[in-house]
Design brief:
This protein is of the alpha/beta class. It has helices at about 100-105, 110-125, 140-145, 150-160, 180-185, 200, 205-210, 245-255, 275-290, 300-305, 320-335, 360-365, 380-390, 400-405, 420-430, 445-455, 470-475, 505-515, 530-540, 550-560, and strands at about 1-10, 20, 35, 95, 130-135, 165-170, 190, 215-220, 240-245, 265-275, 290-295, 340, 345-350, 350-360, 370-375, 410-415, 435-440, 460-465, 485, 515-525. The chain is about 35% helix and about 20% strand. α9 (about 275-290) packs parallel to α11 (about 320-335) and α18 packs across α20. InterPro entries: Phosphoglycerate_kinase (IPR001576), Phosphoglycerate_kinase_N (IPR015824), Phosphoglycerate_kinase_sf (IPR036043), SAM-dependent_MTases_sf (IPR029063), tRNA_(Gua-N-7)_MeTrfase_Trmb (IPR003358).
Length: about 550
């Protein structure tokens, strides 16, 4: 399944959810791209492309190693930091718009999006620019994250991420608010929460000019707000001679441009935000092309109202009733599902630190008038999505094992991180009585391997492009035969670096291998540190309940190796 996640809302309102369906059946996916959109799912913005610099500091111009996009076959019609002459950054004041939700990602430095954002800042800093950071966060985010209690605490957090001193500056966010010594120092400056100033949301010209005062270059790395007309995303561009897309912004836009190119089915769109009337053309187009819709945020309230569910009048866009009913009719005629939340986290308007969970119907029919405002989906919705993922498999589609292998009763050998496939090709030639499956994240390598499999006519060998850490259980559990052997020859492409050793082999993967491996099955590794790493994880598993079998199966295996 291909999932198109269209984020049409503020970055501070992230809805991750499972929904009760309207018509049709549920499908779910194991991977998604979270992108922003306006009225069309395909974005075409025509701007000039600045040639790549060949200056004496070109060694700083590196490919974004956290990107999964093949730029050799793509063309981005925006001016990007990657293609901006790096020597022109030296000595310039550069203002960077960031996404605070992304910076506070619970995955920390394991998040590729966070890494890309940090690489934008580091790139500018190392190129000799004076970096000014601006971002925003609402009271809800501040109430649940102590890092956002003050500009000072957020600056300390940013310093720890960047390993560079970040100086907090309160007051009107402009260079003139800084002390003279702060201006001349080579430290990064972080300004106060932009939502503390009315001019931000109003896209005030005077506020935009103050924000840009002293800055020559503007870098936008807050893709989730790219559709918002704000001083820090639109107004500021009038006063800077260059406006560039940061590394994270560029990657997300590349994903957006690829949406209409997919041929995989089912194709599900996840849409969030508000202002149904403005987004109606995009929603109708998605409903006519996709195999299902997930509506979250304020958009979901319009659908619920259209389906006859009582919704408080303050949440209804009365001028969008016609468009809502048209969307429901399109979905009904195509027999595709529309999903919405079943429960919601709500914030007390009289106490910004009081959060409670309410059933959607209960909340929307009356509790709004008592001062409760929905801010996120609730735990029942999360449990629902979790159960659906396990029921319908988190891998993008059900694997047709009978088409992949000539005999699905043969034992299965799975190689995690199969790379160029040479190991499995040799094994498949020597052991015709086994079926071999390679799991590899690099899609280019998988495509090449599958071409070689087809050329050789091998019916006991197959490769899948996937993140085995999260999809191993759903993929292998659907195999008709038994899992006999699992090999993990390189837990990380650069396992010699200590910080990388624990990136792939995590508890989720260890438990999945233990649960699915047949009795007397084997785990094979040629990396010295790996068996001890996995043994350590096995020793940490609870020795009772659902983990007892995992512990008892894997512990003897590693004690004997």
């Amino acid at each position: 399944m291909q999932v198109c996640g269209v984020q049409l809302s503020s970055a501070t309102s992230r809805w991750r959810e499972s929904w009760p369906p309207f018509g049709g059946s549920y499908e779910c996916a194991g991977h998604s791209c979270c992108i922003s959109g306006s009225q069309r799912p395909l974005c075409r913005v025509q701007c000039c492309q600045v040639p790549r610099s060949t200056g004496n500091v070109a060694h700083l111009q590196k490919e974004d190693k956290y990107s999964c996009v093949d730029r050799s076959t793509s063309y981005l019609h925006v001016q990007t930091l990657r293609n901006f002459p790096i020597e022109k950054l030296y000595g310039e004041v550069v203002l960077v718009r960031l996404d605070s939700v992304l910076l506070l990602d619970p995955l920390g430095l394991s998040s590729c999006s966070l890494k890309r954002t940090l690489s934008t800042i580091k790139y500018l800093y190392k190129a000799g620019g004076k970096v000014l950071l601006v971002t925003s966060w609402d009271p809800v985010l501040q109430s649940v994250n102590p890092v956002l209690k003050s500009t000072e605490s957020f600056a300390d957090y940013m310093s720890s991420l960047l390993q560079v001193k970040v100086i907090p500056v309160n007051g009107v966010p402009c260079l003139t608010s800084c002390k003279k010594e702060e201006r001349v120092q080579n430290d990064i400056i972080l300004f106060e929460n932009l939502l503390n100033f009315r001019g931000e949301n109003a896209n005030c010209n005077d506020f935009s000019q103050k924000l840009a005062s002293g800055a020559a270059i503007f870098v936008n790395d807050s893709f989730s707000l790219s559709h918002k007309i704000r001083a820090s995303t639109v107004g500021i561009t009038r006063f800077c001679y260059a406006s560039l897309a940061g590394f994270h912004f560029e990657e997300e836009l590349m994903q957006l441009l690829k949406i209409n190119d997919t041929t995989r089915r089912p194709y599900i769109a996840i849409i969030g935000g508000s202002n149904f009337l403005r987004k109606a053309p995009a929603l109708h187009l998605l409903a006519s092309q996709c195999d299902g819709l997930f509506l979250v945020g304020k958009l979901s309230f319009q659908i619920m109202n259209g389906l006859g569910i009582p919704v408080s009048s303050c949440l209804i866009e009365k001028n969008a009733t016609k468009e809502v009913l048209q969307l429901i009719e399109i979905a009904h005629n195509r027999n595709i599902p529309i999903y919405y939340p079943t429960d919601l986290w709500c914030l007390n308007s009289n106490n910004n630190e009081q959060l409670e969970i309410f059933d959607s119907a209960e909340l929307l029919s009356g509790l709004i008038s008592l001062g409760w405002t929905p801010v996120d989906i609730g735990p029942s919705t999360l449990e629902r999505i979790s159960s659906l993922l396990s029921s319908y498999k988190s891998y993008p589609y059900q694997i047709p094992w009978d088409d992949v292998f000539s005999d699905t009763t043969q034992p299965l050998f799975v190689d995690i991180g199969s790379g160029n496939g040479l190991f499995l090709f040799q094994m498949a030639r020597n052991w015709e009585g086994l079926n071999f499956l390679g799991l590899e994240m690099n899609e280019k390598l998988v495509v090449r391997c599958l071409q070689d499999v087809a050329s050789a006519g091998k019916r006991n060998l197959y490769f899948l492009s996937t993140n085995a850490t999260s999809t191993f259980r759903s993929i292998v559990s659907s195999y008709p035969g038994q899992l006999t052997l699992v090999s993990i020859q390189c837990p990380n492409p650069d396992f010699n670096k200590e910080q990388n050793r624990w990136r792939m082999v995590r508890r989720m993967l260890v438990e999945a291998v233990a649960d699915l491996l047949q009795v007397n099955g084997k785990v094979y590794s040629v990396v010295p540190i790996f068996p001890f790493q996995m043994l350590n994880m096995v020793m940490c598993l609870p020795k009772h309940g659902s983990n007892q079998s995992s512990y008892s199966k894997l512990l003897p295996l590693f004690l004997n190796c």
